[in-house]
Amino acid sequence: MSRGDIPRGHAGAQAAGQQSTRCVPTAGENPSPQPGAHTKGEGDTVARLMAEFRGGYVVRVAGGELEAEMSGRLRYAARRGESPRPAVGDWVALEARQEQQRALVHYVLPRRTKLSRKIAGHGVSEQVIAANVDLVFVMTSLDRDLNLRRLERYLTVVGESGARAVIVLSKADLSAGDPGLAVVAVEGVAPGVPVYLESAVSGLGLEELRTCLTDDVTAALLGSSGVGKSTLVNRWLGFEKQAVADLRHIGKGRHTTSHRELVLLPGGGLVIDTPGMREIGLLAEDSEGLAETFPDVELLAAGCHFGDCTHGNEPGCAAREAVSEGRLPEERLRSYLKLRREIAGAEAAGVERERAQTPGRRPWGLGALTRGRRRTGR
Ligand SMILES: Nc1nc2c(ncn2[C@@H]2O[C@H](COP(=O)(O)OP(=O)(O)OP(=O)(O)O)[C@@H](O)[C@H]2O)c(=O)[nH]1
Ligand SMILES: [Mg+2]
Ligand SMILES: [Zn+2]
């Protein structure tokens, strides 16, 4: 059987009807407290941040869900870049005011993983898409042209986050060509990443993807608007919780999901539905994610004559040599260099921003916030 007949990797097993546990983390890996868990002693509750809207948050406490906002002190620290701003998936310490159905978030507990992107604006600005995520489903739909370069960008961001990536090729029922060929093309740019075919219409892949979400796994769905993220969440839930796009609005620049929300699935597992993002910019920190996404290029680069080879016109460039010999697709090297330039640009802008800040400031750690609150006697 030729390689074109049956895709390799997970989707290959999927096509052959085999079970796979490739996306399931090892038992006991990254144990997370359960939503609504409490800490005793300081009068604070530790809760999971479930949803993020423009004006505030929703947190899950033992008695249910509460609307929440940042305390003045946390707001101030976040504005000064001395504390992270709470994001969906975060564990936060808060003061619940049950009678008012509100909570005040005092601080953000250290994060295990962090999925962020650069957002447009002045200088370099980081947006945390989700925190404490174990698994990211990077979704791209087969009813449109496959954009492998965008996929590499997503994988770089996920690689940096600390979460593992799983690629979902959605709307397999609408694929113009052979979905198996799409799988092969995707696997070519995503070494080691499981690839699944999915269709919310035929049901293909729904169960297998669901098995990735064991009890204490938090996953996030990432992908352009209209690829079917909310539809997949609804299929897993068994009811239409998340609004999905009306077909008439697809491709008209409208985003159906407007906020990020952590959804608890029946039978275990949590999934964060996110609004489709037009732009997913890289940050200075993304260089490890890049190396993880392009192990083939990195390996070749180690053989370049100059240690700081830019893979441009230098003599003895092993990466360019591989391209000329057909061992590395030229677009892949170009894509790698483009993303690397973007990271270097963010790095330079970050350095500028650091310089502009007042020297000698002392970052506030968790302890400082707690001490400050104790002093005020709250
Ligand atoms: N044929 C087909 N249509 C699908 C499939 N999955 C989703 N759709 C349709 O695609 C449209 C977009 O789906 P959504 O779930 O709203 O997409 P989304 O990724 O959540 O989009 P945003 O919230 O804007 O980021 C809806 O009309 C769905 O019914 C699928 O597997 N096959
Ligand atoms: Mg949606
Ligand atoms: Zn080189």
Question: What can be said about this structure in brief?
Answer:
By secondary structure, the protein is of the alpha/beta class.
Structure description:
It is built from eleven helices and 13 strands. It is globular. It folds into three domains: 9-28 and 115-273, P-loop containing nucleotide triphosphate hydrolases (Rossmann fold, 3-Layer(aba) Sandwich); 33-111, Beta Barrel (OB fold (Dihydrolipoamide Acetyltransferase, E2P)); 294-356, Ribonucleotide Reductase Protein R1, domain 1, CATH 1.10.40. Helix 4 links the parallel strand 9 (164-170) and strand 10. With 378 residues, it is an alpha/beta fold. Helices cover 30% and strands 21% of the residues. The longest helix has 27 residues, at 330-356. 42% of the residues are buried. The strands form two sheets. Strands 1-2-3-5-4 form a five-stranded mixed β-barrel. It has a two-stranded antiparallel sheet with strand order 6-7. The site of guanosine-5'-triphosphate (GTP) has 23 residues, from helix 6.
Q: How would you write the strand order of the largest sheet?
A: 1-2-3-5-4
Which architecture of the largest domain would the CATH scheme give at its second level? 3-Layer(aba) Sandwich
The number of helical runs is 11
CATH topology (level 3) name of the largest domain: Rossmann fold
Order of helices and strands: HEEEHEEEEEHEHEHEHEEHHHHH
Largest sheet: 5 strands, mixed, barrel
CATH class of the largest domain: Alpha Beta
Number of domains: 3
Low-confidence stretches: 1-9, 17-21, 25-41, 358-378
Name the ligand types. Answer: guanosine-5'-triphosphate, magnesium ion, zinc ion
Shape verdict = globular
Distance between the termini: 70 Å
> What structural class is derived from the secondary structure elements?
alpha/beta
